[in-house]
Amino acid sequence: MSDIKIIDQKATFENIKEDLLRPIKTKNWKYTLWIISLVIFVAISLWCYGLQLKDGLVVTGMRDYVSWGIYISTFVFFVAVALVGMLISAVVGLLGQKWITPISRIAEMIALAFVMMAGLIIIVDMGRPDRLLNVFIYFRYQSPIFWDVTVVTTYVFISALLLFLPMLPDLGIMRNHLKGDVPKWKWNLYNVLSLGWIGTPQQYKILHKTTRVLLILVVPVALAIHTVTSWLSAMTLRPGWDSTIFGPYYVTGAFVAGSGAVLIAMYFIRRGFHLEEYITEVQFDKMGKLMVLVSLVYLYFNINEFIVPAYKMKTIEAVYLKTLFAGSYVYTFWFTQIFGLLLPIILGFFKKMRKPFPLMLIGVSLVVGAWFKRLIIIVPALIHSYLPQQNYPANFHGYEPTGIELTITLGTIALAVLIVSILVKLFPVMSIWEIAHEKGVDVEKDL
Amino acid sequence: MKNIFKIFGFVGLGLIITSGIQAQDWNITSEQKATQLQIPFTGTNQEAGEILYNKNCKMCHSTIKVVPKNDRVLPIAPNLGCQVIQSTNTDGELFWKITNGKGGMPPYANSLSDDERWKLVVFLRMYFNSYAAPTIGGVAPEAPGQKFQGTIKSMKLSFDDKTNKISAKLTAVDAEGNPTIPKNIKVKIYVKRYFGNLLLGTVKTNDAGVSSVECPKDIPADTGGYIFISATTADSSATAIEQVKFGQKLVWDNPNNHPSLWGTSKRSPLWLKASYISMVLAAWAVIFWAFFQLYKIRSIKEN
Amino acid sequence: MDQTNESVKPSRRAFLKKFGMTLGAVGVVGALGVLNSCSTKEAGKKFRFINAKGEWEEVDVSNMKLHLTELQKRGREGIHNKKFVKVIDLSKCKNAQICMSACQKAHHLRPEQPIMNVLRMENSNGTGFYFMPKPCQHCDNPPCTKVCPVDATFKREDGIVLIDNERCIGCRFCIAACPYSARVFNWSDVDPRYAEEEKDLIYNIELNVPQKKGTISKCIFSADRVRIGKLPYCVSACPNGVYWFGDFNEDVVTNGTSKESTRLSTLLEEKGAYTLIPELGTKPRVYYLPPVDRLSKYDYNGINYLGEKEADQSEE
């Protein structure tokens, strides 16, 4: 087996189509089991959310000092991972990199699922979810939350369009070739979604133009979504959050988390759907390099974020930093720095480590590290107040997430994974027509 | 209401606990007990003592009333006008009790000077009917204000911008019903404020039955430039209230009328609103344009 | 055997019922706004509210919405030409905590929600302790109202920062934004001690009662008392003369204990007043007079002046 798949003359439309549509046509008990377990988990967390609705947020570990806990840190995590769609398709794609073709759709699917969950977990965190509409009725231009709601909504739509538009020719192929192979409702879905795609040059022209414009638009919107998310913290006077580099600090951190998620998804989709010929080691190698690059940038921001206040040790900042470096959050902090940042960078420098399996492990380390990193950003800053914390019960001083809270949080993560899992099985995980074009196969004549 | 009792009960309990220590003495030596009044029992000292009392003691001891026995329960400290307390304490004892304190009563040794504490003693003694004030440094004691024998009929307030003085003119009748001039009567003159009245001064009426006090020019008035002033005699037998034009007219620039980041949505700064709306319009224009392109793709039919 | 069976069955059924109910509840939230109308509306039912004169009035359920609107409008407008200000004399405070209990009683708060809190402060190592009552600072540049997404917390023209629990969505951004930790959240349902009292009570924004689950609560300078020209609950409850309260525009503050009034500017100038953490630029409307010439001994060895042992006070 060679490292690089050579574009050969034998590649026919029939082969490509067969390889990429196979997961859609076939049934797989492992996949069914995976989906069922995810659904059960989501159902359990839904029940926990019912308890939270009934009793109020008292069922969580949050109290008056640490009033934002793992819900908000998971929200930041979701937004961070969702940014990968923009990184892969827009930044790398617009730079003319061809190697991203097989993974750009996976990135877009992850982006869409995670940004939707970001919106959902904000509702979970709300004390009065029944008043969600107030945000649109009584909105305040001055509030970062309103900006956040705006950009998240915009990003959901752009992500959906960026997933859907390049899929139109594929949907046309599926409509034409899958009739009878899939249940009728599925075929009807493809039929409706294909929007009567017939592959005329005019349609391709519109498709290319629109995709390109959206790819340009998604860059500022994605930057905005994560910058505004960072502003939710940075716009306050809290030590630990009161930082001017929070925007870029969050954005680069998001690229790291997103690359990790894509690496995991690539590995399992490649293995599960037997797509070794499409997601080759080239893709892994390049993704590994990209991961090292964004991690290095993130490392630079981390150094700035911590060294600058740690050198000065202003009273209240000092208390906060001591908690991280050597206090109650010492293990979490060094875990995120070592496993979420330093180790992946060092390992990523070795060619042997930029193989599928090691990179998948590195991806897991990055994603887990990224989640804990968000926790480290949100919670310790809230634990320390300017004034002493007195006349409160003991459990108001720290933060310990409860079982219900953890279950709900994990449930939203499971739901995100579930959406990605359904999307990859419902639609081709990579663009048939683009792959065919790259391999010099004419799609239109087979449509 | 129940809770208020609970609170009082609690404070009371606390004070009773501390008053357990009350069984211990005030720790006053016989030498201290025999200390004589150090300042003359004059009107000036009485008034100074009253001001000090209001500032430092009234919060616990409340208004003094002449009664035979203490009529107050904890947490209100004893009524110092009670004749039992007055007769069993010497001047020296009162002075040293204020100085040293005990239990719930704080020591005033550091916060009030010796002179001030003696003024308090002078003030307290005004309520002791059978008090025989000593002559100190050749100054004879003054009786605490001869009670005016007539009945005050009316009080009229006026303000003079030239002298910048508020005057209260009193009229009265004597026991037979003939008009008489109420002299030497204490009148308190206030500026009315939202939560309480600001005392401008307590002035005795002159030979014409008029008591007048100078106004601070910088006192803020309402938006029309008016101030309500009021006056009352010390025994509240006559009161008057008047709206006069003086003081600094209030020019109130409501900060909520200006655009600000902390204000309501209606008060959002223009730059913020404009940049938000323009950015959202731009992004959504592209999104709608993309949807329109989808529609265009759909409408292309094979020819 | 039978007994155990019996005891198991209902609990299982109850569990299923609960499960179904909660699932149902989730569905309800999906259809937004249903929880909003949690009060049942029976015809002829009477509701109580406090009118502009500070008197209780009873109204029919049909007028409820109208009166709520009136209370909201009145509460959001504030009192014209006023700018309320509080002065706290630290030299007088003996940690009696009566302000705290009066406040909690008035606003139907739980003991663990001290929106008026008396803190034991030490400015620097070895500088000695003093007690500092800490209400909301009602800043002129409030970081909390800046971040509120729905105008639920806002600064009225008389300077009071209020919270509207009919609108608050419970995002708790304002808690994160407040550097004085002045805000608390209603994590759970109403305190059962006040359940009876709150029945049929129309929400009064100026008193912030009834407290509502999932919303914010905070010190509101007793806006209901201030409206009728009375001093706030904490101010008039203090036995030690700590609090002065008044109108900045009138330049006069009144002491809650002695009821004595004095010129605000003179008081601030003579006593060397300061505001809390002024470097944050929040411009507080609460002034502190330094804890000098204190009347009582401050070395309590952990015993406060009521003779009670103080709660565990872990200093961060």
Task: Give an account of the 3D structure.
- The complex is a heterotrimer of chains A (447), B (303) and C (316).
- Chain A has 447 residues and is mainly α.
- Chain A has helices at 13-25, 29-55, 70-82, 84-94, 101-125, 134-137, 144-164, 168-177, 184-193, 201-234, 246-272, 281-312, 315-325, 330-348, 356-383, 403-426, 432-438.
- Chain A has one domain (13-446): Formate dehydrogenase/DMSO reductase fold.
- Chain B has helices spanning 2-20, 30-33, 43-56, 58-61, 83-88, 91-100, 114-125, 270-299; strands spanning 151-160, 165-173, 179-180, 186-192, 197-204, 210-214, 226-233, 239-245.
- In chain B, a hairpin with a 4-residue loop joins strand 4 and strand 5 (197-204).
- Chain B is elongated.
- Residues 13-23 of chain B have low confidence and may be disordered.
- With 316 residues, chain C is of the alpha+beta class.
- Chain C has a domain at 75-289: Alpha-Beta Plaits (2-Layer Sandwich).
- Chain C is 27% helix and 17% strand.
- The longest helix of chain C has 29 residues, at 2-30.
- The interface between A and C is large, with 61 and 64 residues.
Q: In CATH terms, what is the architecture of the domain at 27-125 in chain B?
A: Orthogonal Bundle
The helix/strand order of chain C is HEEHEHEEHEEHEHEHHEEEHE
% residues in beta strands of chain B? 15-25%
Q: Which class of secondary structure composition applies to the elements of chain C?
A: alpha+beta
**CATH class group of the domain at 75-289 in chain C:** Alpha Beta
How widely separated are the two ends of chain C?
Answer: 56 Å
What is the total tally of β strands of chain B? 8
Characterize the largest beta sheet of chain B: strand count, sense, and whether it forms a barrel.
Answer: 4 strands, antiparallel
Beginning-to-end CA distance, first to last residue of chain B: 88 Å
Q: Give the radius of gyration of chain B.
A: 33 Å
